[in-house]
Structures are given as structure tokens and as C-alpha cells.
Write a structure and sequence with these properties.
nine-stranded mixed beta sheet; alpha+beta; single chain; 30% strand; four-stranded mixed beta sheet; 9 helices
Length: 425
């Protein structure tokens, strides 16, 4: 029998803040359409403990994640490998760590959030009772690949129903010894980019979680899967991604929640007697770095995102060389050799998540992106020939000096396999 505790708290900013996720905003938030929340589930079994945090945020950069984990570790005695930070990746949440985006880092919110993440972990651990875990996997047709080949050797940003997408909708259900719901954690890979604008909110995952809670009476958590090239497709209109009304957004979240709840009927009991956690950092190499002269030329670019990026890179070169690779964290929570969760840093594209699931068969694997360090888009190898935003157009927003090499998918898959092997060895 596992010890399980779940907690949830409000992390909505108390005042107007800069939001992050879109490059066209020009002022702070104007209100709240849905409160932001952070939840945590604490599981102890077999001498091991893990805490998984899921929050209505865009993600965390490496520095913020390291600091937040250290803050939690210092207060709880947990090791950083036992603490998992995940996010829904809503694009209507505060700008709280450095990006090349309009606005500025909300330092006050960053400090507030740091303490709130610790608080929700402390509450989850305090709530631990003897209980059971069950796992259900179903599928959903919500979302679509957003990379449509243009027939000219490139990509346009448009619905591609034939493109790869991981449609697994996974849910861990937690119950006490009497069978009463303690909470749940669901994973699905679709960008929460339904809405833009200036209102704070959790997008479809927020409505999803509230719909689950209405039925179970217990906190529902949501972590976004490998969704770098996947987004919602309201109305399924060919060639475009129309914004939904709030009613349509709520209905989408509620429908996805109904699918998850229906899967509980066939959920399998999870033996977590041999619960294990592990993590590793490895390097994802960049392609050729920009020269100093090229950066100085980019300072003249009329696009402020490009010129701001060039200025940030030049500031580094004043003191030394640009990095040739980015640290990337892989974290594993393994309940038993037949069921595990793989947490990946970055906006990982669907192809990589699918590759990992295949490589780790016959066991069941849930792949979660936007975890621990949101380093950049992490493209699959097959996306490179056509290029596009995820491959070579977005790295500047994340303060990366260059795009990644096409070899990164194989590096991630092999590192994941090796890490799992250490748990099963």
C-alpha cells in the first residue's frame, strides 16, 4: 500500500502582470478569466518518495527549476531527483523568468511562486494517507499537428490531420483505503494555445481539471505531454486555427475530462511497491554558432525579438564564448517495470515522445514535456528537412545561441533507455 497525498493551491497573481507565450503583446494583463492553480501529488512506497508538481504556467527555465527544487529539498529533505516540476504550458500566465518576449520578468511573482510551490508540496506530504493507485489509458481526437508541408520544401503553420500526434490520454487515479478519491494526474499532448490576449487563465487544462473535480470531489492535476507541434483545432476548419469562445473552450476541456473519467472503468491497479526515481542531465548540441559580426548585424534587425536576442548573445561574448550545447534533463518516475513516467525538458515534439514509448515497450510509458527546464523547442529528426518555426525559427525566444542539431532525438531516446536500464538492472 502506498502513502498518497494530494494538494492544490491558487497561484493567480494579485495584480496586473506581463504575460508570456506570444510575441505580440504590448501591455500587462487586463483581468482573469480563470484562476491559475498549482497542485502536487506526494507518493511514498518501498522506501522511496516522489513529489510531482503540476502548475498553470508556461514552464520553468533551468535556473528557476533548479532554485525551486533546491528550495523544496531544503525544506523537506527530499532530493532534487525526487521532485518533478511540470506545467500545463498555458500561454496566459505570468512572465516570471527571462525570455526574449515583450515586457519584463515579474520578479515579485517569481518569488511568490517559489514559496507557493513549496507550500503545495508541504500540504501534499501532510495529506498523505494509505491508498491505492490505478492507471488508465484512452485516446482523444482533440488537437492536431500544426506543421503542414507547403509542397515547396517547407512548412506552413496550419492544421495537418495526417501529421504525427500522440493521442494517448493517460490518467493516474489515487484513492484511499475506502476507495474514496484523493486526486488524479492526467497527461495529454496538446498545446494550450486556445486563447491569446490579455486575460489570465489556464486554457483547456484548467477546464479539464475543474470538470474532473466536479465528478470526483478531489483535486485534478494536468501535465502536458510532448506537444511541441500540436495545438487545438476548434471547428476543424481547413487551413486555419480559429480562436474559440469561452463556451467552446470550456466544452473542449469538459469533453476531454469526460473521456478521461470514462477510462477509469478499465483502469488497472498499479503496484508501486518498487517505486523508483532517477534523473540525468546530458547535452543537446547546437548547430554552428553565430559570429560576433553576424550578431552585430542582427542588432539592426527591425524585429525587436531578433535585435534583443542579438544584444543578449553579445553580452555573453563580452566575457567569454557562447555555449555549444544546452543542458537537458530527463527524469523518470517508475512505479514498476511495467509502468513509468518520463519527464523531459523543453517543448518536445510529438515524434520524440512516440519514439520513447516505442523504445521502452513492452512496458507502458507516459511522456511529459515542459518539465523542469523549458530550454527550447526540441524537434524530432524527421522534422529537420522541412525546417520551420520549431526547428530553426524559435530558438531566439528561449535565449539559445542557435538551433539544435538533428541528432538530438537519438541522444534523448538513448539517454532515456540507459536511465530506465539503471532502474531495471
Amino acid at each position: 500500500m502506498s502513502l498518497i497525498g494530494v494538494a492544490q493551491i491558487d497561484i493567480t497573481p494579485a495584480e496586473a502582470v506581463w504575460l508570456v507565450g506570444y510575441g505580440d503583446r504590448d501591455h500587462k494583463s487586463e483581468g482573469v478569466y480563470q484562476a491559475l492553480r498549482a497542485g502536487a501529488v506526494a507518493i511514498t512506497n518501498g522506501g522511496e518518495e516522489v513529489v510531482i508538481i503540476a502548475a498553470d504556467l508556461i514552464g520553468y527555465d533551468l535556473a528557476y527549476a533548479a532554485d525551486a527544487k533546491a528550495h523544496i529539498a531544503d525544506a523537506t529533505g527530499l532530493l532534487p531527483r525526487q521532485i518533478v516540476l511540470t506545467a500545463t504550458h498555458t500561454h496566459c500566465a505570468p512572465f516570471f523568468y527571462p525570455w526574449i518576449m515583450p515586457g519584463a520578468v515579474e520578479a515579485g511573482y517569481a518569488a511568490f511562486l517559489r514559496d507557493k510551490l513549496l507550500e503545495v508540496v508541504l500540504r501534499a506530504r501532510a495529506n498523505q494517507v494509505a491508498g491505492s493507485i490505478s492507471f488508465a489509458r484512452t485516446t482523444s481526437d482533440f488537437g492536431v499537428n500544426r506543421r503542414l508541408p507547403d509542397g515547396k520544401g517547407g512548412i506552413i503553420f496550419a492544421p495537418n490531420p495526417d501529421g504525427p500526434m500522440d493521442r494517448d490520454l493517460d490518467t493516474l487515479f489515487f484513492a484511499d483505503q475506502q476507495g474514496r478519491a484523493l486526486g488524479s494526474l492526467s497527461v495529454f499532448g496538446c498545446h494550450p494555445t486556445s486563447l491569446g490576449g490579455y486575460l489570465i487563465g489556464g486554457d483547456y487544462p484548467g477546464y479539464f481539471c475543474r470538470a474532473i473535480e466536479e465528478q470526483t470531489g478531489a483535486p485534478a492535476l494536468f501535465s502536458t505531454g510532448c506537444a511541441g507541434n500540436i495545438r487545438p483545432w476548434y471547428g476543424r476548419k481547413k487551413g486555419s486555427f480559429p480562436r474559440p469562445s469561452f463556451e467552446q473552450l470550456a466544452a473542449a476541456g469538459q469533453e476531454l475530462a469526460a473521456t478521461a473519467l470514462a477510462s477509469q472503468t478499465d483502469a488497472m491497479s498499479v503496484d508501486a511497491t518498487h517505486l523508483q526515481t532517477a534523473n540525468t542531465f546530458h547535452c543537446l548540441p547546437y548547430v554552428e554558432l553565430p559570429t560576433r559580426s553576424a550578431l552585430q548585424e542582427t542588432l539592426k534587425d527591425p524585429n525587436p525579438r531578433h535585435s534583443d536576442w542579438a544584444a543578449a548573445m553579445l553580452a555573453i561574448t563580452q566575457h567569454g564564448k557562447l555555449a555549444t550545447s544546452s543542458p537537458h534533463e530527463i527524469q523518470i518516475v517508475q512505479f514498476n517495470p511495467d509502468l513509468r513516467m518520463v519527464f523531459l525538458g523543453g517543448e518536445v515534439l510529438s515524434e520524440i515522445g512516440l519514439h520513447i514509448k516505442e523504445a521502452l515497450q513492452p512496458g507502458l510509458t507516459s511522456t511529459i514535456a515542459y518539465a523542469n527546464g523549458l530550454i527550447a523547442y526540441v524537434p524530432g529528426e524527421e522534422t529537420y528537412p522541412l525546417g520551420g518555426y520549431e526547428v530553426d525559427g524559435s530558438y531566439r525566444y528561449f535565449l539559445r545561441p542557435a538551433p539544435f542539431k538533428s541528432t538530438i532525438e537519438e541522444l534523448i531516446v538513448e539517454q532515456t533507455k540507459e536511465l530506465v536500464a539503471t532502474l531495471n538492472g
